């Protein structure tokens, strides 16, 4: 029987777990909204952006979206506000603001 | 029952022959004495087109076990072989194999760990890995290691078990000794072992899966308890598989073998090749009217402590033989675990834990007779042992040698 | 005839003493015996003294210790007589077989007063006359069969021919030389 991420919560008994905690499903991290952890938030300054896309691979949470080969908005549902993208951007096109 | 073919071969050849008959999917391995011959023989079989196992040459044992984990998780029936420091080098990943419930088979040709550096038989390598979550089955001779290899996947892959398994034999003493053996027909082995059809695996079409996740504290304890159940269930499965194997081969296996055990007052408990030597000593002493016997441990993981203790309940004195120093100032691993089991069973016997055969130190029938003699004196209160004596040790203190 | 015959081989790494011990176990197995053939392993390499053992029995063999009181000892390299106590534990009802170019009289003083039978063979001579190369294990195998009497010579030769034919299926000339060596060795044992 396939076991999905939604079957797990902190009340589950050991007998109801899969062997080795296998989950028979892909991309389960999508359902885990780490954006809720964020205390500082990146802000995208579109006018300074040269579309080098360097920030994209640097983001540890794949929260910088690309659409039609162009930098799109942040995925703030999952962005933890680490600020790595700010350091990665050579053009100062991302800045951090306090709060969510 | 099928007709077995009489042959003669070494323990390593016997294992290689069983592997040939099973034809597993993947074998990553790194050579180390005295298990080197196993991947060597298997490579030859592959080169000769006798089997289509995928052999992966790797740069270390850490890599061979890692590759085995990857292959098994992908859905391939996998095996490897190692000894001594090779097994020690796998240490970290042994736990990954077990906790991810990957039924890999590993042929362990038991050899001493350093130091002093030595290549000969000792159980310190697999005993060191006794709590890594792997099943462990030990053999007295080439026949048993062959038979255990054939039974291995049936136990490990069973839906109630799903754990990796070590099939152990004594380095050189059985791995390199040519002895008589009875081989099963290949088709009978194939039918017995069957094909590997895991329910979930990484290369399964139409199903994605995640394996080996990080688990936070609220889940880890439950995950470990679930893993432990596989080991608990293995007891039943090991006996079921042994029963089926007996129907096929006529050779009977269980958790242990009792030799002249039922009415024995003085009993040795031991693992591996020394048990043959003990049986010869028993015949000699029985002919002189001594009520001596042997409990040969076949299955060490899971540890059938209750079954062992029940079989030993009427003994007056028991010597638990460890081919491994525990370095705990208290004895060896078999001594520790069996003594606990005897206590739970409220056994009344005098118990002594003896260290023997370290680093290939030879054990003769005379040595064994001496142990039985001491056991008899111990039960009469006319002799005593030191905390945990060594057999055949040169020592200035009489209490620490036999 | 003994129920159990125990043989200890002394040789040097690379001379084939282990192979000879295993071959003897092979032949005995083919005659329906229970066998055990095993080397004593250490970190030895080519030229180092090595020991190998054979147990040949009518009953299943269970003991897994080395052999301390052999019925027969085979010395594949006579230079070992100076450094290894080859007759240690050897039963006086048994015999020692030595590969040497010397005479028995020259050899005896090196045997620590061994009281049993002493047999010698010039395996080098046998090899050079039949194989053209020095592979002492082939003649030593035939010689110990003769000395120990564990099987009839004709049966031994027949068994060896079958197994060598199988082994050297693609090199029939090797078979011929080896068979000649075995036969000559049976005659040359003194």
How does this model look, in words?
The complex is a heterotrimer of chains A (100), B (402) and C (190). By secondary structure, chain A is mostly beta strands. Chain B folds into two domains: 245 residues, Rossmann fold, CATH 3.40.50; 145 residues, Rossmann fold, CATH 3.40.50.920. Chain B is built from 13 helices and 14 strands. In chain B, the strands form four sheets. A five-stranded mixed β-sheet of chain B has the order 4-5-7-6-12, sandwiched between helices. Chain B has a five-stranded mixed β-sheet with strand order 9-11-10-13-14, sandwiched between helices. Chain B starts with a strand and ends in a 23-residue tail after the last helix. Chain C contains six helices and six strands, in the order E-H-E-E-E-E-H-E-H-H-H-H. The two termini of chain C are 22 Å apart. Chains in contact: A-B, B-C. At the A-B interface, loops of A face helix 9 of B. Strand 8 of chain B pairs antiparallel with strand 2 of chain C, so a sheet runs across the interface.
Helix content of chain C: 25-40%
Q: Hey, roughly how much beta strand do the residues of chain C contain?
A: 15-25%
Structural class of chain C: alpha/beta
Topology-level CATH name of the largest domain in chain A: Alpha-Beta Plaits
Q: How many helix segments of chain A?
A: 2
CATH level 3 topology of chain C: Pyruvate-ferredoxin Oxidoreductase, domain 3
How many discrete structural domains of chain A? 2
By DSSP, the count of extended strands of chain C is 6
Q: How is the main sheet of chain C built? A: 6 strands, mixed
Q: What are the low-pLDDT stretches of chain C, counting only 5+ consecutive residues below 50?
A: none
């Amino acid at each position: 029987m396939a076991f999905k991420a939604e079957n797990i919560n902190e009340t589950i008994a050991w007998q109801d777990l899969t062997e080795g905690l296998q989950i028979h499903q892909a991309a389960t991290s999508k359902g885990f909204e780490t954006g809720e952890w964020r205390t500082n938030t990146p802000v995208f300054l579109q006018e300074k952006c040269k579309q080098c896309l360097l920030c994209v691979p640097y983001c540890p949470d794949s929260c910088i979206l690309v659409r039609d080969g162009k930098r799109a908005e942040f995925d703030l549902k999952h962005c933890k506000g680490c600020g790595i993208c700010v350091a990665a951007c050579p053009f100062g096109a991302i800045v951090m603001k306090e709060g969510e | 029952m099928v007709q077995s073919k009489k042959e003669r071969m070494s323990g390593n050849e016997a294992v290689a022959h069983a592997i040939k008959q099973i034809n597993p999917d993947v074998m990553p391995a790194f050579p180390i004495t005295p298990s080197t011959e196993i991947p060597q023989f298997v490579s030859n079989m592959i080169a000769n087109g006798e089997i289509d196992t995928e052999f992966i040459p790797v740069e270390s044992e850490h890599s061979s076990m890692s590759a085995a984990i990857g292959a098994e998780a992908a859905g391939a029936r996998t095996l490897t072989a190692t000894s001594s420091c090779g097994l020690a080098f796998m240490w970290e990943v042994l736990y990954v194999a077990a906790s991810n419930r990957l039924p890999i088979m590993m042929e362990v040709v038991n050899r001493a760990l350093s130091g002093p550096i030595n290549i000969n038989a000792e159980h310190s390598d697999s005993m060191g890995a006794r709590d890594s979550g792997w099943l462990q089955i030990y053999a007295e001779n080439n026949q048993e290691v062959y038979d255990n290899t054939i039974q291995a996947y049936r136990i490990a892959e069973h839906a109630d078990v799903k754990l990796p398994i070590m099939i152990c034999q004594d380095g050189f003493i059985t791995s390199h000794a040519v002895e008589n053996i009875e081989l099963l027909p290949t088709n009978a082995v194939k039918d017995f072992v069957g094909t590997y059809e895991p329910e979930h695996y990484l290369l399964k079409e139409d199903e994605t899966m995640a394996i080996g996740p990080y688990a936070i504290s609220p889940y880890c304890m439950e995950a470990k308890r679930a893993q432990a159940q596989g080991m608990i269930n293995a007891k039943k499965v090991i006996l079921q598989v042994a029963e089926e194997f007996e129907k096929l081969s006529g050779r009977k296996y269980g958790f242990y073998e009792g030799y002249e055990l039922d009415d024995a007052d003085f009993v040795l408990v031991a693992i591996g090749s020394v048990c043959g030597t003990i049986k010869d000593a028993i015949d000699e002493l029985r002919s002189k009217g001594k009520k001596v016997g042997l409990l040969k441990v076949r299955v060490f993981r899971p540890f059938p402590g209750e079954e062992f203790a029940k079989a030993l309940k009427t003994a007056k004195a028991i010597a638990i033989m460890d081919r491994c120093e525990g370095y705990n100032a208290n004895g060896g691993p078999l001594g520790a675990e069996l003594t606990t089991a005897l206590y739970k069973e409220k056994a009344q016997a005098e118990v002594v834990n003896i260290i023997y055969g370290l680093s290939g130190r030879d054990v003769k029938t005379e040595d064994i007779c001496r142990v039985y003699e001491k056991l008899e004196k111990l039960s009469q209160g006319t002799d005593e042992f030191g905390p945990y004596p060594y057999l055949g040790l040169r020592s200035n203190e009489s209490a620490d040698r036999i | 005839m003994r129920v159990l015959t125990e043989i200890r081989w002394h040789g040097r790494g690379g001379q084939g003493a282990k192979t000879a011990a295993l071959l003897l176990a092979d032949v005995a197995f083919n005659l329906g015996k229970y066998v055990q053939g095993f080397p004593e392993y250490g970190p030895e390499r080519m030229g180092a003294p090595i020991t190998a053992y054979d147990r040949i029995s009518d009953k299943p063999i269970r003991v897994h210790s080395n052999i301390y009181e052999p019925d027969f000892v085979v010395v594949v390299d006579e230079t070992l007589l100076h450094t290894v106590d080859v007759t240690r534990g050897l039963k006086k009802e048994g015999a020692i077989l030595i590969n040497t170019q010397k005479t028995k009289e020259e050899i005896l003083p090196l045997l620590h007063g061994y009281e049993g039978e002493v047999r010698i063979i010039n395996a080098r001579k046998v090899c050079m006359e039949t194989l053209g190369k020095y592979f002492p294990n082939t003649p030593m195998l035939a010689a110990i069969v003769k000395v120990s009497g564990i099987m009839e010579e004709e049966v031994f030769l027949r068994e060896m021919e079958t197994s060598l034919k199988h082994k050297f299926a693609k090199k029939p000339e090797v078979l011929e030389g080896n068979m000649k060596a075995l036969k000559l060795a049976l005659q040359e044992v003194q």
